[in-house]
Every structure is written in C-alpha cells, then in structure tokens.
Design goal:
Number of strands: 3
Strand order of the largest sheet: 1-2-3
Strand content: 5-15%
Helix content: 40-55%
Low-confidence stretches: 161-168
C-alpha cells in the first residue's frame, strides 16, 4: 500500500494559515481511498500527523468487541478498505513475512496462535460482516497462511505434522 498527503490551506482572516490533510491510500490493485483529518493545524506536518493518527485510531477500534457500535459509516468504510488491502497484499508469504504477521498479530493471527478459536471466530464474524458479501471465497493466498499458522501452533515451528491420512 502506498499513501500520499494532500493539504488544504485556509486563512483565518488574521494572516495565519491553517492546514487540513487528506491521506490518499492506494492498494496493490490500484484502488484508492481518501481520509481527511477533522481539525485545522498550523502546519502541514502536524495536519498529516493528525490524519495518520485518525487512521490508526480506526485500526485500533477494530480490536474492540463492539466494532459496529463504536465506528460510524465513514470509519467502517476506511476499515473495510484497509482490511481488503491487507488481504490483497498477502500473496505467497515467505517465512520472514509469516513471522512478522504472527509477531504483530495481524488479521486475528494472535488469537489463533494462542489456540483461542472461539475468540478468533468472535473476531472473524464482524470482520466478515464488515467486508460484506463481495468478499467471495477466501483465496488460497489467504487460507494457506492460516493453515500454516495452525500447523505451527499445533506442531511447532520446525516439525512437520503427521500425514492426517495415516492410520494410527
């Protein structure tokens, strides 16, 4: 994902300029989403920082249990865009990328690594609702990392799971 800031300058009538920043986000598929900060700031840098913090606050809200009651429609649309961008960027993961995803707990992986499948499902249900019916079937690039994470959780990092078709 790439981003750029666009700034809008306004004059307060006392010869002081105030700035509002709009973050223009572009995902791997070329889709864009814009998010504008709500407050005017004395400089472009502080306006951009405030807008970036707004986006981080929306991401932080995604970890709360009451996802749909705490976020208004524009925030849910931003969050859905960010989730889709994250899912689209998965591709074939290297071991390093998989380790980073686990360390950060991206996409609910923190819940899977602790073995708390009920908490993972509680997280996944509102996310599925958020993304809507157009999400379709989960692509292999998404399901493979989750299967690998589950295997690592069950059998350890270096050990391979037994062939499940073997008889015991």
């Amino acid at each position: 994902m790439t981003y750029a800031f666009e700034h809008r300058a306004t004059n307060d009538g006392k010869h002081l300029m105030h700035y509002t920043a709009t973050a223009v986000l572009r995902d791997a598929r070329g889709r864009t989403h814009q998010w504008t900060g709500h407050a005017d700031h004395a400089g472009k840098t502080s306006a951009g920082e405030a807008t970036a913090q707004d986006i981080l606050d929306v991401l932080a809200a995604a970890s709360t249990d009451d996802l749909f009651t705490t976020l208004e429609r524009p925030q849910r649309e931003l969050l859905a865009y960010l989730f889709r961008a994250q899912l689209d960027g998965l591709g074939q993961l290297t071991e390093r990328q998989r380790t980073r995803i686990l360390a950060r707990g991206d996409l609910g992986t923190d819940l899977l690594t602790t073995g708390d499948t009920e908490a993972f499902l509680a997280w996944a249900d509102p996310v599925t609702t958020l993304l809507g019916p157009d999400i379709g079937e989960a692509p292999e690039t998404l399901t493979n990392p989750y299967h690998k994470i589950l295997d690592i959780t069950r059998y350890g990092q270096r050990r391979k799971p037994k062939d499940l078709t073997e008889s015991y």
